[in-house]
Amino acid sequence: MLNEIYQFCEDQMQGGADHLLSDFRTLRTGRVTTKMLDNIRVESYGSMIPIDQAGSVLATDATTITISPWEKSMLSVIEKAIMKADIGVNPNNNGTEIKLFFPPMTVDQRQETAKKAKTMAENAKVAVRNDRKKANDKIKVLEKEKLITADESKSAQEKVQKITDKYIVKMDELLKTKEHDILTV
């Protein structure tokens, strides 16, 4: 029973760390990446799909992303979605593809992006703490139903806290690395 709770805790917290990493990929550092467009959705045949399913998305150099839609009719749809997403650049449509030219980041932009990263990390830590609470609540239910003793409950909650601490430290390390990437010119 307790091992299932520990496993639940590990799985949920690892999921939070993975989600934080995917959120970090959407932030711009010195080089542009196609991951910056991951949160942009376009309408295709009545459903919303990620931009990379509507066409080829490539980072052609450190400051340019090129999007070549599979269908020419998607050009204007993709262009509008990018403008609506407000990622800091205007799309350039040449009739066959869309190019996004990202200017070098200013110091203020870097600091603002670092703040966003910090907020993302803080949200991930809150999720980890919520997972800890869920695990502790399950442990308390087991104790209340007399399936485990009070001592077992206390040691189980301590183990859950150790798992939580491990993931909080991991998220702090991820944040530190990402901040370094963002702030390094």
Describe this structure in words.
This protein has helices at residues 2-25, 74-85, 107-144, 150-183, and strands spanning 41-44, 47-50, 55-61, 64-69, 92-93, 98-101. The protein is of the alpha+beta class. The protein folds into two domains: 2-25 and 107-183, Topoisomerase I, Chain A, domain 4, CATH 1.10.132; 34-101, 2-Layer Sandwich (Gyrase A, domain 2). A four-stranded antiparallel beta sheet has the order 3-4-6-5. A two-stranded antiparallel ribbon has the order 1-2. Helix 1 packs antiparallel against helix 3 (107-144). The radius of gyration is 22 Å and the shape is elongated. The chain starts with a helix and ends with a helix. The model has no long low-confidence stretch (mean pLDDT 90).
What's the short version?
With 185 residues, the protein is of the alpha+beta class. It has 2 domains: 2-25 and 107-183, Topoisomerase I, Chain A, domain 4; 34-101, Gyrase A, domain 2 (2-Layer Sandwich), CATH 3.30.1360.40.
Instruction: Tell me the name of the CATH class of the largest domain.
Output: Mainly Alpha
User: Strand pairing plus helix content: what structural class?
Assistant: alpha+beta
What letter string, H or E per element, gives the SSE order?
HEEEEHEEHH
**Beta-strand content:** 5-15%
- The total number of structural domains is 2
- Provide the low-confidence segments as ranges: none
Task: Please tally the β strands and state the result.
Answer: 6
Oligomer: single chain
CA-atom Rg in angstroms? 22 Å
Q: Could you please say which CATH topology of the largest domain applies here? A: Topoisomerase I, Chain A, domain 4
**Helicity level:** 55-70%
Largest sheet: 4 strands, antiparallel
Distance between the termini: 51 Å
> Which descriptor suits the 3D outline?
elongated
